[in-house]
Amino acid sequence: MSGVANCAAYTGGRRVADVEVKDIGEVLKQTDRFIWIGLHEPKEDLLRQVQQEFGLHDLAIEDAHRAHQRPKIEWYGESLFVVLRTAQMNREQGRIDFGETHIFVGARYVVSVRHGSSLSYAEVRSRCETTPQLLCKGPGFALYALMDFIVDQYFPIVDVLEDELEALEAEIFDEAFSRETTHRIYQLKRQLLEVKRAVSPLVDMCNRLMRFDLELIPEDTRPYFRDVYDHVIRINEMVDTLRELLTTALEANLSLIAVAQNEVMKKLAGWAGIIAVPTMIAGVYGMNFDFMPELKWDLGYPLVLGGMLVACGSLYVYFKRSGWF
Amino acid sequence: MSGVANCAAYTGGRRVADVEVKDIGEVLKQTDRFIWIGLHEPKEDLLRQVQQEFGLHDLAIEDAHRAHQRPKIEWYGESLFVVLRTAQMNREQGRIDFGETHIFVGARYVVSVRHGSSLSYAEVRSRCETTPQLLCKGPGFALYALMDFIVDQYFPIVDVLEDELEALEAEIFDEAFSRETTHRIYQLKRQLLEVKRAVSPLVDMCNRLMRFDLELIPEDTRPYFRDVYDHVIRINEMVDTLRELLTTALEANLSLIAVAQNEVMKKLAGWAGIIAVPTMIAGVYGMNFDFMPELKWDLGYPLVLGGMLVACGSLYVYFKRSGWF
Amino acid sequence: MSGVANCAAYTGGRRVADVEVKDIGEVLKQTDRFIWIGLHEPKEDLLRQVQQEFGLHDLAIEDAHRAHQRPKIEWYGESLFVVLRTAQMNREQGRIDFGETHIFVGARYVVSVRHGSSLSYAEVRSRCETTPQLLCKGPGFALYALMDFIVDQYFPIVDVLEDELEALEAEIFDEAFSRETTHRIYQLKRQLLEVKRAVSPLVDMCNRLMRFDLELIPEDTRPYFRDVYDHVIRINEMVDTLRELLTTALEANLSLIAVAQNEVMKKLAGWAGIIAVPTMIAGVYGMNFDFMPELKWDLGYPLVLGGMLVACGSLYVYFKRSGWF
Amino acid sequence: MSGVANCAAYTGGRRVADVEVKDIGEVLKQTDRFIWIGLHEPKEDLLRQVQQEFGLHDLAIEDAHRAHQRPKIEWYGESLFVVLRTAQMNREQGRIDFGETHIFVGARYVVSVRHGSSLSYAEVRSRCETTPQLLCKGPGFALYALMDFIVDQYFPIVDVLEDELEALEAEIFDEAFSRETTHRIYQLKRQLLEVKRAVSPLVDMCNRLMRFDLELIPEDTRPYFRDVYDHVIRINEMVDTLRELLTTALEANLSLIAVAQNEVMKKLAGWAGIIAVPTMIAGVYGMNFDFMPELKWDLGYPLVLGGMLVACGSLYVYFKRSGWF
Amino acid sequence: MSGVANCAAYTGGRRVADVEVKDIGEVLKQTDRFIWIGLHEPKEDLLRQVQQEFGLHDLAIEDAHRAHQRPKIEWYGESLFVVLRTAQMNREQGRIDFGETHIFVGARYVVSVRHGSSLSYAEVRSRCETTPQLLCKGPGFALYALMDFIVDQYFPIVDVLEDELEALEAEIFDEAFSRETTHRIYQLKRQLLEVKRAVSPLVDMCNRLMRFDLELIPEDTRPYFRDVYDHVIRINEMVDTLRELLTTALEANLSLIAVAQNEVMKKLAGWAGIIAVPTMIAGVYGMNFDFMPELKWDLGYPLVLGGMLVACGSLYVYFKRSGWF
Question: How far is CA C97 from CA A296, D33, D159, D170, in A?
Fold first, then answer.
């Protein structure tokens, strides 16, 4: 059925059957089974069918249908509704593509709904299936596996942003600045804020999954959420460090532009002086006074030319020593 | 009656009768009914009449009469008093018009008092009337419907502000800066602060509506307030992101002005040099020494002119290569 | 007696007698009475006498004698000691004059001690006397009336500061900047910080008056303190908004100074070019070569003059089009 | 004994005997006595002796021996260990000298250990001895007296820093800026941070002394610590206000430097124009064309000179009116 | 065995035997012993062997194998897992080398796993062995000894960073600024953020070790963790102070660059004027008017030369007095 990526029943951590959406009710009659169903951008009627099979809350289904939720976790009676933002680096266009995944977890089901840019969760499922001793903990573990997978997608993204900052540092401190540098600093800031917005609500979410006394998350599954929590905290810290460095970089950039301006101005001033002095001297000897004895001397012209050269040379050396050139 | 936009009695989520203000006491004798009354900039005597019918607190009525409250929620005995700020984008004048709505909620009544710029709540009421299975939850649901409607008015406003930031980015990074750009950054900051002030108190308000054990807000209505809470958090986050980007944009703007200054100064310096050199050479050959052999040469003049051209050309090429032009 | 502004006994919210300080003990023997006494910059012996009559704590009296306390609230056994900062705009000198008021509240007395710049509290007292149904709630209500009066004095002050910011904005964005603008921004910041320091401790103080289970503040008086709380929060928010706008204004100011500098530099560069070109041409034809055919032409001079004009004109048009002039 | 500034036994708030360190054990056998001992930079063996007499904790003694602790309060079983930073303005060198005082408080002893720059505590002791009705509250009151004395040393220091800020403001806004101004702003910031670090931990410390149910601090001594708390909060607020003003001053300083730069540049541009115009005219009439009719006129020279003067004068008036000069 | 730095059994605080990893189970049969084992970058199979001997949790072992954890503390049932970041100043390359140490603490074992740059813990162990009265408190004390040692490594690093800031201050305020200064400010900021990230999670970790009622950390060991806590707080405060000073230094740097620019511009303007005036005068007397009486005077030339000198001299004195030179 279009929109259903995968739908299977598990017993004791092992996949026992592929299930059609319409057969879910039948399958759940066997009380030792739980169902893990993965949807990809489902049509509304499919969502409604899934809602009826598992008895999901209206508001959660509305959220799952609309995009642009912020990450959150909500309890509707005995079921849990989790919204996560997924992210992938779009290297060609130099931007981050975000998607959304909604997960419904009940005592005997996990439903994941994938929207927008994100990797398929087939990999998560098959990895879980190789460790039935863990998957047999139930839907809570599947939730962990999905969250862990999604959160770990952010590490390579933050790495790319760190590389970008280092490239910017090299530009700012080693080479000539340009309008482009400032623009890239700004773009990086924007991307960091986007990642921050996608990741920071997860701190609180993991905290709640770890602490609340939920039947859905058995005691021995909680350390795994603590692991996700640690990853989220690390991503958050990396982003915050990057933001603070970026702010400093922007200020350093401004300082260095001012330094460069100073250098240009000193050069301008120096060369203006070097050219102005012989111009002035030439002006003096261009005056038309009847009585200007130097003008009659045979050596007048070469002496003046020499004087000009000496003056310019001295100025040049002086400016060179003062660090102006 | 002037100032009363709508006043009706509901039973089991269905509108059963339009009611005059003076008949309210009579209608409330039927214990399965609740009354939903909408006022629009009421005169003081109307407010006093409503106060008497429902037994509202003096302080709340005073607040409802005065404008310029900040959003808040207050319990007066068994009734709830909610102040909200409404907002509408005034596109012609490029500013946000704010209004205020006060809502009184009791066990069997909802009173909304609308001041200043805001859409009519007729739409909210009719939408509620189409879902009697929800409206039958009572006045608490009507409160949710009003708050949801008011909060959702902020999304298009934030969208406009995001568009404005993007337009500013384009101006800052792609085109020439101007005094106007800085002014618009400042105006945008001011508008963001206004929206922030109107929305941020709602976080705490929704929290209290969700958590406190109130008879007015039945258990199964709370997820709806959680929904409003999510929207408020999202608007808040969007505004905060915009503010941080705007701060960065202002700094980037300053950097780029400095870069532009550098470019102007380099051009100034370069052309000054290109003009000063032939001027100096001309000065030298304008000197009046008796003995200046070059002046006698037939090719003196063209040679000097050629020399000037070569000097200027070399300088031009040099500056071009240095990236000064 | 000098230093005593007013001293009266109240029963059931009605003023029943004016009282001399020395008669207080006598009056309080009638258990249905409470005394409200207003002092204005009292001498130490008067303070000591009042202390003895009501049994006030040493530390509180020391505080009431010394000035320069920060706003605070303290319980000494069964009595309450409140310190508030009063403020008045001194329009002539363009600064805010601060004063201090100390209030002692017991089960059957209110003592207000007024220092420095502040309005008389006679108005508060007479307003209270017109609503005996409220004043009969006892000293707690008198405390509310005083605090409300003092807090409301800050609204016109914040309005003046908002007007000042708008005047500054007009200066920054519309007219020429000046040293004075920056100075006024700084002064405004200083005033905002002063107001902030005077008002922000009140948030916590009102909170404590509203929440703690005090006999002094009866249950039905608390909504009134919630009202003061709302006003304090609003003043705080207004001040914070002003501070953030001011920070942005200072940065915008710097940007605009840089823009102005750019404009000056472009004009400088442009006119320097327009003057340098004819100077260079004149220099060339001022050279003394024997063989310079143009010099012999009858039309040489007008042609050169014409060439100069054309060059200058072209440059002028070029710079005009580039937006440099 | 060297290192012991003072050591006395007190009964009922009155000094009853001077005590040698070695006799402490003997004296404490009388259960109505407590001992107050003041040490000044004691050698390790003296400290060890005191430790044994009172049974102090190893870690506390190590801390008391080492310098450079941050202010803190610690409970070791039934005794209290307090670390405070003392400060004195060193006016000659324009810097703040910091010292450290460690106080051990037990049910029947107070030990103060003074390191580095600080006033002697003899004054505190003698002031306490004049109010036996307070000192009889026991070691807790002695602790209050010491803390109050130490905290009050910060007021004159903050006053000096406020004066320094006002001097800086005058420099920034009224006179010419200089490198020195920026340096002094930086130094002031550094000093503020030092004071902040010394004072801010005291907020939490006083809070704990006021709130925890300690036998060492009897109920009726707590209002005194509340007094210290108020002072600490005030110093903190003053320092924070100064920091924020300083930040604004630094930014205003930068703005004013830019304004000054603009002014210089306008003057430069203006005078360059005023000189360039007659230079250009002179250049034109210095050309050697055969046919230049003006050169033959008798009034040519004075007319040109006059024209130059008019041009320069007009420019001067124009720049004057434009506010460039 | 490669990877095992040290492995010994302790009874009553005294080392009683060196133990092979494979004999651990045997040794632990004597219930009065605990084992302290130090690993250095162990291979996976060694880690797995240690895991089996002590029954450590899978997730902790995975963390201990992977690097790049952030400092944290975790309870897995009855054992404690601690991650710390170690740091050493690499003076040659002017950067801080970070490493990681993982510590497993159980009722009767301590396992430390050292990765990357860090000093050997042999010193900690031998120091502990010299104080058996403390080590006999058990594995909790060994944990304290390791944490104390690791935290104390940060003091010399922060000292180096403080020295670096002072060197930068000298550069900024006393000498000429350069691109290098700004770069070093940025580098210092980066290092401070790295130290901050390594140290700040320790505040919360020590808090939890001090407060939670753990059998692993006996009551009388907690003051020692309070000591570590104090050190961590001090390092944190030093880093925060450095960061704030650095921010101010960066802004002061920008101000001083602007001041320097002003100075250069004034010099440029001054000297341009001094050269332009005689050039203009010479231009005037270079004009070719037939009737220019001065040109005939015998003293014309010397007078004009003298006039030029006087003009230049006056300007020089004027600029000198105005502080432009």
Answer: 81, 51, 20, 21
